[in-house]
Amino acid sequence: MKPRVSLVLGSGGARGYAHIGVIEELEARGYEIASISGCSMGALIGGIHAAGQLDAYRDWVCKLDYFDVLRLVDITWSAMGAMRAGKVMTKLESLVGDIRIEDLPMPFTAVATDLGRQREVWFQSGPLLRAIRASIAVPGIITPVQENGHVLVDGGLLNPLPIIPTVSVDADLVLAVNATAQTPRPVTLEELLPADQAAQEHAREIEREAEGKSFSGWLKNVRTRVQGMVSSFNDEEEASENVSWSSQTERAWSKLDMMLASFDITQAALAKYKVAGYPPDILIDVPKSVCGAYEFHRAEALIELGRYLTAQALDRHERQRDRTMVAGEPVDGRRHPSSSGDPQGRLPLPLSSPKRHG
Q1: Is 74 a catalytic residue?
Q2: What is the pLDDT of residues 273-316, one digit of tens each?
Q3: Which of 6, 37, 40, 289 is catalytic?
Q4: Residues 6 or more apart whose Cβ sits within 8 Å of residue 221
Q5: CB-CB contact of 188 with 218 (8 Å)
Q6: Is 336 helix (H, G, I), strand (E, B) or coil?
Q7: Is 37 a catalytic site residue?
Q8: pTM, full prediction
């Protein structure tokens, strides 16, 4: 019988592409995904997989270059966010249609944050795309979802690694992927990949440079497009200054960079808290230094990184399991809340009491 896995997919922007590799490696090795709980990019990847469209989504993102990503950036003048994410959601709609969460073949939870009530929102029923859109709304970057008087933003604000929704699932183990992991020193994507795949990624970067699709050029274009929106948030004194367009652009981009970097740091710290509160059976760490949250043009390498890290983690888990069986120790074949070492089955409390949303 195939081992059943409750899968927890964390936030992390472009690093969330590694979730695709995680899913591919699990299925290639005969594991059955029994449920998915996801936040932000994890909710997006998990939801697309649960809807049976991960292969099509993978094909699409692996073809995106710098300028394709730029064309997906739909700038808005809203004071609630720099981008609407409308173009991305239109593409997702073309893949999954109007499917509802309760009609998916497995339990699925997408986590968002209710800004007004200051608590988590768990989407476990209702339209899948609505849940994904709320979960990916990075505060200040992507406009929030406003529904019935509630303002919903990225779940990573309170719970970037939503392990708790998996505890009631009948599964053999819980596997969590933390895509905002902290490391003692910065680690590059090429350092983590096997040598042959690192060489392929390096060759892709050289090819992009030769074609004039350098990251620096792409970044300059993004900076120019977002400058107009962010500069509108300057105070009156700044607005009255006679400064050049380039200096305004630099100042605007530094604000976006600071928002993203601050959000990354907060999520990394919260994820450590979640892991400590309810340790998964397998934890896969994707260091936040492997790429920026907005480097969505690096899908191929990040997917391969997910596969590679998962293969290593499963190898360790299976060796430990085999040693335990040889030693004659009892093996608990199912995960339940009471198996966490608390005889009364008590669970650690989340940072805020979640509200289930339908």
Answers
A1: no
A2: 899 999 999 999 999 999 888 889 899 999 999 999 999 999 99
A3: 40
A4: 67, 70
A5: no
A6: coil
A7: no
A8: 0.82
